[in-house]
Amino acid sequence: MSAKVFFTDVEDGVVPVDCHEKVIQIAYIYMDAGLWIGNSIFDVVEKLHARGWLFGKGKLRFNYSLDIFYLAQLAMAIYCFTNQLEGDFPNYPSPDDFHFFYTTYHTLLYFSVWCSYYSPVFLTQHTTACFYRLPDLRDLPDSDSLLGLPRQ
Q1: What is the pLDDT of residues 91-110, one digit of tens each?
Q2: Which residues 6+ apart lie within 8 Å of 130 measured at CB?
Q3: Superkingdom of this entry's organism (predicted)?
Q4: How far apart are CA 120 and CA 124, in angstroms?
């Protein structure tokens, strides 16, 4: 199924967003459509929330830090895929390449990757759930790499 058909079916309620991979795929499509026209990750999370699509389950169901974390992970995977240090998105993966992309960067995107970055106690705090907070266990991937520096 093409990304366009998937997206239309999801938005029309034909295909339920009932697993982590589908939320990641929808976020990937939103990021593809919006980040390059002035939107931010925060705009993408608002679009997801407007539809009730969240990354957390159970006690983590409405957790802003967790949702932003997965979008940051998705952005990191896109940067890795495109080799940002070599130019402006020369090989940007299309939304139709999502399954290849997801498999390639599964270590950044899988359902419980947050456990390596956030302690459950920290992530379930009211402040962490309501506002974006950086992880308490370790830095985000490549936060000390050249990608974090101003572009020349």
Answers
A1: 567 788 899 989 999 999 99
A2: 64
A3: Eukaryota
A4: 6
In the structure encoding, which two tokens stand for residue 145, read together? 């790499």
Look at the alpha carbons of 65, 68, 70, 72 in this order and tell me if their dihedral is positive or negative: negative
Query: How many domains does the chain contain in total?
Result: 1
Q: 150 in a domain, yes or no? A: no
Residue 78 lies in a domain: yes
Query: Which residue range is the domain that position 63 belongs to?
Result: 3-145
What kind and span of H or E run contains 86?
Answer: none
Tell me the pTM: 0.84
Q: Cβ–Cβ contacts within 10 Å for residue 149, how many?
A: 8
Burial class (CB in 10 A: 0-12, 13-18, 19+), 75: middle
